[in-house]
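Recap from last week: sequence in, structure out.
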Amino acid sequence: MPTDAPLSIRAALAQGTDSIAGDSARLDTELLLCQVLGKPRSYLFTWPERELSAAQQAAFRALLARRVAGEPVAHLTGLREFWTLTLEVSADTLIPRPDTETLVEAALELLPDGPCRVADLGTGTGAIALALASERPHWQLVATDRVAAAAELARRNRDRLGLHNVEVLTGSWCEPLSGRFDMILSNPPYIDEADPHLAQGDVRFEPRSALVAGEAGLADIRLIAEQARACLKPGGRLLFEHGFEQGDAVRALLASLGYAEVNTLNDLGGRPRVTLGRRPA
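Predicted structure tokens:
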């Protein structure tokens, strides 16, 4: 199709859906069009015959080409939905994923809706801490990230959402924390550096430091579990997201470090995703 030919919303949706590989092609196209038009998705279905301006066509085709090359939609739009929140994202952080909502759900079920201290380690966009803060305004949350740009992104998301019961600190895992916590949770790097999936799909565009860990993906989980013993209150909970094949290994690791009541929870797809333990009283 010539670049100067009129392009309606209906035709743009068809063009994008045909061009992008994968099951999410239609949704990806809708999100890119919404970005270009500055309109909600409902607009696409209400006005399918509306034609894009020349500038909008050029912007859409540029975004479409980047998506066809594999760049994540979240990086192209700068936004990602997580829990009930819309978060700003960037190439400095991991893109929040639906599986991580299992971690949020587990945390909400374990602690009461009263004054509690909770730490989210390696917060990235702030997704976990901010989701918890949106549901538990009486909790005091501390989010840490060793990458200064990620910590600043989490602060921007916090301020834009008005979730001021979250403090964001720059530093590695538990090192910036002070005092004791009722719960510490984390979605740390847990992919083996030899995993072939690192060369496929959206993860090619995400920071490897947020994805990869040594010891077959367990190095950061081990380090956090070791550090957390000095930061948890007696009886405090430690929760990790991990790969669906790592449940046995993470349970064994927590048990070896003296954690009690070690258990693994499944995600929405029925796969082992979150392992938790309790610091003995």
